[in-house]
Amino acid sequence: MKNLIILTTVVIVLVGVIIFIYSGDTVEAPTPTPDSTPSTSSGPASSPQSTPISEESPLPLPTVSGSKVTVTYSNSGYGPATINIKRGDTVVFENKGSFSMWTASAFHPTHKAYPGSDIAKCGTQSQAGIFDACKGYGPGESWEFKFNEQGTWKYHNHMQANHTGTIVVE
To answer: CB of 97 within 8 A of CB of 103?
Structure first.
C-alpha cells in the first residue's frame, strides 16, 4: 500500500512538471530588475567587438557592448558554447531560433548550480536575481542576467535540456 501511494505521488508530480513545461507561454513574465531583465531584441549593438572563443562553436561570436555580452540561441543550441566575462557583466541570451528558449542554471530540472538559484523560486518574490528565466522566450525575444558570482557556471535550455553552455566569470 505504501509503495502504491509513493508511485501515485511520483506520477502526479511528473504530470505536473510536464504540464508546467509545455504551458511555458502562460507563465507570468518576470518582473524586470537590475539583475534579471527580460527584453525584446531590436538588433545588434552599434559597435560590436568580439570575445575569443573556442573554434568548436559554429554560431556567431558574442557581441560585447560595455559590460554586456550576447549569446545567441538557435535551433542547434547556444553559441558560443563557452564565454569568459568579468564579475558584474551582463549576458544577453537572444533567441534567434524557431522554438522557445528558457535559459536556466544547470542542472536540469532543478536549476541550482548558480548560487541562490532554484526553479522552485520561479513565480515567487525570490525570483529576482536567480539565474533562471522562469519562462520560455520565443523567437526574436531575449532575456538577460547579470553575473555577480565568480566561477564557472553551466546552463541549459529548460525546454531542450541537451542545449547547454558555460559562462566563466573572472
So the answer is: no
Domain residues for the domain of 135 are 36-169
Rounded to whole angstroms, the Cα distance separating 115 from 121 reads 13
**CA 143, chain centre distance (Å):** 8
Q: Is residue 31 part of a domain?
A: no
| Collapsed DSSP state (helix, strand, coil) of residue 84 | strand
pTM, full prediction:
0.62
**Cβ neighbours of residue 26 under 8 Å, at least 6 residues apart?**
none
CATH code of 59's domain: 2.60.40.420
Per-run averaged pLDDT (10 residues), the chain, 170 residues: 72 58 43 41 38 42 65 97 96 97 96 96 93 97 96 97 96
